[in-house]
Amino acid sequence: MLNTREKYHFGDKIHLVRERRGATLKEVAAAAGVSESLISQIERNKVSPSVDTLLSIAEALDIDLEFLFRDHKKNKTLTVISSEDTDILSLDKVVYRHLASITGDKQTIETMEIDIEPGGEKGRLEYGHPGYEIGVIIEGTGEIVYGTKSYALKKGDSISFSSDIPHLLKNTGHKVLKAIWIITPSRIFL
């Protein structure tokens, strides 16, 4: 797994704009309501400004916030999981292959490939769990029992549902049922 994330500094852009406008540290500090020393430290990337301070400086220099955050948007975390590093979990007649996940401050999402042997099943009819699921059948035939209803599934079918209702995915065919599955919040690999 490869993660890339760089710490972003606003100081370089603030310094550039201040210099182009011919403003002194003292003038910007007074207009923003902070100390001259703080402006200097921010410009040299010695400290990161609070949101309020950053907004005050941006207003004092008439800086568009899009300009300040443009590079930050381009440098978000990217995760690559090579096929050699894929986590695999086997339970009874079900094999889960971890494809990718997103872990945020308040939410997680995981994607996996699921292989269910003939007669195998995943899920429970006794209880559900918080969250949502999306599935796409890649090969084979199956059935999903969702609450008190059953739905036949075949190659190319896709489904989405709230996971708080008891649910069970079964292979009803004679070949392996393959599916791509997305769950939020994560339950298997995270």
What key phrases describe this protein's structure?
434 Repressor (Amino-terminal Domain), Jelly Rolls, six-stranded antiparallel beta sheet, four-stranded antiparallel beta sheet, 5 helices, 2 domains, alpha+beta, 12 strands, 190 residues, 25% helix
Structure characterization notes:
The chain has 190 residues and is an alpha+beta fold. It folds into two domains: 69 residues, 434 Repressor (Amino-terminal Domain) (Orthogonal Bundle); 103 residues, Sandwich (Jelly Rolls), CATH 2.60.120. The protein is built from five helices and twelve strands. Strands 3-4-5-12-7-10 form a six-stranded antiparallel beta sheet, with no helix packed on it. Helix 2 packs across helix 3 and helix 2 packs across helix 4. The longest helix is centred in the N-terminal third of the chain and has 11 residues.
The number of strands is: 12
**Which strands sit side by side, in order, in the main sheet?**
3-4-5-12-7-10
Order of helices and strands: EHHHHHEEEEEEEEEEE
Helix content: 25-40%
Largest sheet: 6 strands, antiparallel
What is the number of domains? 2
In short:
The chain is an alpha+beta fold. 25% of the residues lie in helices and 37% in strands. The protein starts with a strand and ends in a 6-residue tail after the last strand.
Question: What is this structure's SSE topology?
Answer:
Elements: E1 2-4, H1 11-21, H2 25-32, H3 36-43, H4 51-61, H5 65-74, E2 78-80, E3 88-91, E4 94-103, E5 108-116, E6 121-124, E7 132-139, E8 141-146, E9 149-154, E10 158-162, E11 167-171, E12 177-184
Antiparallel strand pairs: 1-2, 3-4, 4-5, 5-12, 6-11, 7-10, 7-12, 8-9, 8-11
Helix pairs in contact: 2-3, 2-4
